[in-house]
Design a protein that fits this description.
With about 60 residues, the chain is mainly β. About 0% of the residues lie in helices and about 30% in strands. The chain is globular.
Length: about 60
């Protein structure tokens, strides 16, 4: 599982407070380090979602 740096200004699960996946936020670079292929629990829908998934109930992490 490789991790990539992703932007925080998108409505993907990896940037959402309601997604329980492992990620690291770098505020100085405004990036999130995450394996976007990993599935994790979505606390809104109570299902596993990939980090690349999008949602209308997006709750910004940073």
């Amino acid at each position: 599982m490789g991790q990539d740096f992703k932007p925080v200004n998108v409505k993907n699960c990896y940037c959402c407070l309601q997604w329980d996946g492992n990620r690291t936020y770098y505020p100085d670079k405004n990036l999130v380090k995450v394996d976007e292929r990993t599935e994790a629990n979505c606390r809104i829908f109570h299902v596993k979602k990939k980090g690349t998934a999008t949602c209308q109930h997006f709750s910004r992490m940073c």
